[in-house]
Amino acid sequence: MVQLGKQPDTLAIIGNGFDLAHGYQTQYHDFVRHTDSVYLEQFKSCCENEKITTWYLFEDNIRLITERLFLRSMAESCDFDDNRREADRLAEVFRNIQTLLLQYLAKEVAGKSFQKKHSIEGQVGEHAIAINFNYTDTAERYFKKVFYVHGSLAEKDILLGYDYREEPCLAQFEDMRWSKRICREALAFRRLFLQNKRLPPDSKKYQELLSGLESYQHWENSGRGLDEEAQAFIPHYQTIHSFLKKYRQHPFPGLDYRAIKTVVVLGHGIEADKVYLKTLLGQCKHLDKAVIFRYDGETEESYQNKCRFFAPYCGTIQQASY
Questions:
Q1: 249 burial class (0-12, 13-18, 19+ CB within 10 angstroms)?
Q2: How far apart are CA 23 and CA 44, in angstroms?
Q3: Cα-based distances in Å from 84 to 36, 66, 71, 80, 230
Q4: Element housing 87 (H / E)
Q5: Cβ(56)–Cβ(274) under 8 Å?
Q6: C-alpha–C-alpha distance, residues 39 and 66, integer Å
Q7: Helix (H, G, I), strand (E, B) or coil at 256
Q8: How many Å is the Cα radius of gyration of the chain?
Q9: What are the tens digits of pLDDT across the range 106-119?
Q10: Whether the model pTM is above 0.70
């Protein structure tokens, strides 16, 4: 957990473009070009559009694939058990791709020279905090306080998934387990016990807690809800329930959103985490300005889309360059 002193007045939102601006090859096509794996081939074979060029398209295909599996499970002609086995096989593919990505990024950043950019330093100061959607520690070269939304190389724990969708009625947990909302909750729960070494990852109780969390999320998203009968089947129910209630209210403990006056966008494409960012920005009641760093070659349409996204939350939008 990051301990905060004086409340920051500047919030940096960091995405993949931030690492790219510092010379790291972290785009989806970089990863695929340098990774030869049957799991990537299996994933590609499940996609309706095999021309995936960005991480956003990769994650959106996870959404499309799991939607298709659910719809197929509702057909009278479908073998339901076989359909669920296919969902489990896809889950294994996604988990292995996460592992491959973690390994690729660790090699990519290891030993590479790093040079700060004065243009970024000019926009952020000591009272700034970073909400980091990357897995690398590049942001820590500029910010003392960094929250890793989707895991990090240091933790050896990262997540991939889709941002948000209206989950269909009767959907099974297996069809929605790759929702970033669900994945973020599971990541935060793992952090609770591992960061302070409260429980070793190979301990029986730790495994019971993870199993309990998955059962909790399963029942909560089953359409039936967490009635008393369901609670009885969930190991460590009260511990999990108390944690999720607290986490959902304050995913970044100690951060006072009311103190945020400026948001600086560093390489985040917005689209991949749009719903999450809307929730975050909606809590920054005194936000006045957005500074959007524009990368070389970015289209006017892309930049204007970002401007339109931030316009409802602040009065001034300023363009900046790396």
A1: exposed
A2: 27
A3: 27, 11, 12, 6, 21
A4: helix 80-109
A5: no
A6: 16
A7: coil
A8: 20
A9: 999 997 888 999 99
A10: yes
Q: State how far the Cα of 253 lies from the Cα of 246, in Å rounded to an integer.
A: 9
CA 266 → CA 13, 209, 237, 259, distances in Å? Answer: 6, 36, 39, 20
In which region does residue 260 sit, left (phi positive, over 0), alpha (psi from -120 to 50) or beta (all else)?
A: beta
pLDDT digits (tens, 9 = 90+) for 165-189: 888 777 788 889 999 999 999 999 9
Q: What six digits make up the tokens of 104?
A: 């690729």
Q: Are 194 and 257 in contact (CB under 8 A)?
A: no
> Using CA atoms, how far apart are residues 312 and 295, in angstroms rounded to an integer?
23
Cα distances (Å, whole numbers) of residue 174 to 93, 97, 98, 132, 157: 13, 17, 17, 28, 20
Phi, psi dihedral angles at 136 (to 5 degrees): -80, 170
Q: Write out residues in the chain with pLDDT < 50, as ranges.
A: 1-4
- Going by C-alpha positions, the residue among 99, 133, 127 that lies closest to residue 10 is 127
What was the pLDDT predicted at 225? 81
Q: What share of the chain is helix, strand, coil (3-state, %, to 5)?
A: 50, 10, 40
Could you tell me if 93 and 42 are in contact, meaning their C-beta atoms sit under 8 angstroms apart? Answer: yes
Residue 306, token pair as written in the block: 């970002």
The structure tokens listed for 84 are 């669920």
Query: DSSP 3-state assignment of 231?
Result: helix
**CB hemisphere CA count around 162 (13 angstroms):** 18
